[in-house]
Write a structure and sequence with these properties.
Elements lengths: L2 H26 L13 H7 L16 H10 L10 E6 L2 H10 L4 H5 L2 E8 L1 H9 L10 H24 L3 E5 L6 H7 L6 E10 L15 H4 L10 H18 L7 H9 L11 H7 L6
Antiparallel strand pairs: 1-2, 2-4, 3-4
Helix pairs in contact: 3-7
C-alpha cells in the first residue's frame, strides 16, 4: 500500500469513527466511553438517526415510492415464508381523516400524504386452504396470530428503514388498535385480519424538525448469557435524567421516564380502548385457543 493510499485509508477510518461516535452519543444522549464499530456505513447511520416525524410539509411522494417501500417490506424475514401480513395504503384525505378520528385524533395522520395500515392477515391462508378443501385448524390458535403480528412488524420496519434512506420521515400509530372493529370496517377487512398499527409517511416539515430521542442505555436492555435484573437499576436512573433533559429542551415537561411509563399502564383507562382487544379479536373472527 502506498503512502497516499494509507493516508486516505486512515482518514476514512477516522471519519467513520467520528460519525459512529456522534451517532451513538445522539442515540443515547450521553458521552460514549466505549469505542463504536470503526467500519461505519450509511445503513448504520440511517438506523441510529431514526426519529418519529409528526409534522409533514405537504410535498407529494415521488412516483414509485409506495411500490419500493412494499418491495422492501416483502424483503423482510417471514416465519416459514407464510407471509401472514398485508398492508392497506391510504391516500384519500377523507379516509385518512376518518382513521385519524379513530386513532386518538392524531393530526399527522391527516397531514401525511401516505398512511399505511399494517395487518396481521390470516384470511389469505384460510382462503388458500378452503380452495384446497382443507379446514385449517391451526389458524384458530394464538400462535398463528402472533406469527402474523410479528410478520407485519418486521415488514413495516423494513419499509421504515427504506423510506428514511430516501429522505422521508414517518411515525408509527399504535392507536389504530383503539377501535379495531371500526378500522376494519373502514378498510373493508375480511374476517381473520387484524389492523396492528399504522405508519405515516411523508417529508418532514423543516419548520418543525424532529429530534432523535435518547434510548435506554445498553446496560439496561443488553444481557449477556443470562437476564440480569439488578444491573438495570443504575442505567434506568441515568436514563431518567437524560430523557428529562431532552424533554425540557423540546419544550416538554421534565417528567421521569419511569413515571411516564407507569402512568401509561396504571389503569384500564390508560389503554385507551385497547383493554377490550380480546373482544375485538372475537368480533373480527379470531377464535383463539
Amino acid at each position: 500500500m502506498s503512502t497516499d493510499e494509507a493516508l486516505t485509508r486512515n482518514q476514512h477510518e477516522s471519519q467513520s469513527a467520528h460519525k459512529a461516535t456522534a451517532a451513538f452519543q445522539t442515540r443515547y444522549g450521553t458521552e460514549q466511553t466505549d469505542t463504536p464499530l470503526s467500519d461505519w456505513n450509511d445503513t448504520l447511520q440511517t438506523l441510529l438517526s431514526h426519529r418519529s416525524v409528526r409534522a409533514y410539509d405537504g410535498r407529494p411522494l415521488p412516483a414509485g415510492t409506495l411500490e419500493t417501500l412494499i418491495a422492501a417490506a416483502q424483503s423482510a424475514p417471514s416465519s416459514s415464508n407464510l407471509q401472514t401480513w398485508s398492508v392497506v395504503a391510504v391516500e384519500d384525505p377523507q379516509r385518512k381523516a376518518r382513521l385519524a378520528a379513530l386513532a386518538a385524533n392524531q393530526e399527522h395522520i391527516r397531514q401525511a400524504p401516505l398512511f399505511l395500515v399494517w395487518l396481521a392477515d390470516l384470511a389469505r391462508l384460510e382462503s388458500v386452504a378452503e380452495r384446497a378443501s382443507v379446514k385449517p385448524e391451526g389458524l384458530q390458535y394464538l400462535e398463528t396470530l402472533l406469527v402474523g403480528v410479528i410478520d407485519a412488524a418486521l415488514a413495516a420496519q423494513n419499509a421504515l428503514v427504506a423510506l428514511e434512506s430516501l429522505g422521508l420521515g414517518s411515525v408509527y400509530i399504535g392507536a389504530i388498535r383503539n377501535a379495531p372493529e371500526q378500522v376494519a370496517k373502514e378498510l373493508a377487512l375480511p374476517p381473520h385480519v387484524l389492523p396492528v398499527f399504522g405508519l405515516c409517511v411523508g417529508y418532514s416539515d423543516p419548520a418543525r424538525p424532529a429530534e432523535v430521542k435518547p434510548r435506554l442505555p445498553q446496560s439496561v436492555v443488553l444481557h449477556r448469557e443470562q437476564y440480569d435484573a439488578p444491573a438495570q437499576t443504575q442505567g434506568i436512573a441515568l436514563y431518567n435524567d437524560i430523557l428529562a433533559g431532552f424533554q425540557v429542551r423540546q419544550g416538554q415537561s421534565d417528567a421521569l421516564w419511569t413515571d411516564r411509563s407507569i402512568e401509561r399502564w396504571r389503569t384500564r383507562e390508560s389503554l385507551h380502548g385497547r383493554d377490550r382487544l380480546r373482544d375485538a379479536l372475537n368480533a373480527l373472527g379470531f377464535e383463539l385457543r
